């Protein structure tokens, strides 16, 4: 999502709160997770817990929808290259954890984190921008990065059992075009933003193009659950 520190290619700007209301539906467009092998490299990210709430629950896991503020610094000279509080009128950033919407080092660093927790993390180049760096973000090649993170919310992600069951009105464990169409209409109504009618049709067509892998006109539980953090 937007507004987060991008991967090597820039992404769309900050997701507004209104778009978060649509995320359960729009996330059907998301590519499969790219965080395979995280456990094998987790020791390369250094994590220091700066503050831990007395009640630390729920803890974040892959596929959860997080809301956080974070500042990014270059380890080489301590200069700040990113501050979420100065973008999008200072609103915290929303993103899905563990699916490549932020750099891999942040996906690793923010696992098992609870609302109210603060961390300082050190991310090596191999889990950030590597040899290429990121010129647009003023990050040189082979840069080690430091982030100070404050997590505000941990919510069920867009591919949770709850989200699937909410769309699956007839409980047949597959999503029809009619069911997803109705869900989109309901989310648009909740969001309250005016959109051209073609937007609904375009999103619906794209959802099926990218998720109906066997072409049977339905999105099965297996096709839907690409984050694999819940069993459907």
Please explain how this structure is put together:
- By secondary structure, the chain is an alpha+beta fold.
- The protein has two domains: 46-155, Roll (Chitinase A, domain 3); 161-220, Recoverin, domain 1, CATH 1.10.238.
- The protein contains seven helices and eight strands; from the N terminus they run ααββββαββαβααβα.
- α1 (17-26) runs antiparallel to α5 and α5 crosses α6.
- The chain is elongated, with a radius of gyration of 18 Å.
- This is peptidylprolyl isomerase.
- It catalyses: [protein]-peptidylproline (omega=180) = [protein]-peptidylproline (omega=0).
- InterPro entries: EF-hand-dom_pair, EF_Hand_1_Ca_BS, EF_hand_dom, PPIase_dom_sf, PPIase_FKBP, PPIase_FKBP_dom.
Question: Within the CATH hierarchy, at the fold level, what is the topology of the largest domain?
Answer: Chitinase A, domain 3
Oligomer: single chain
**CATH architectural designation of the largest domain:** Roll
Tell me, what is the CATH class of the largest domain?
A: Alpha Beta
Mean pLDDT, rounded to whole units? 78
Largest sheet: 6 strands, antiparallel
Discrete helix count: 7
- Structural class comes to alpha+beta
Q: What is the count of β-strands?
A: 8
Q: What percentage of amino acids are in beta strands?
A: 15-25%
Shape: elongated
State the separation between the terminal residues, measured CA to CA: 25 Å
Pattern of helices and strands: HHEEEEHEEHEHHEH
Poorly predicted runs: 6-43, 228-232
**Fraction of helical residues:** 25-40%
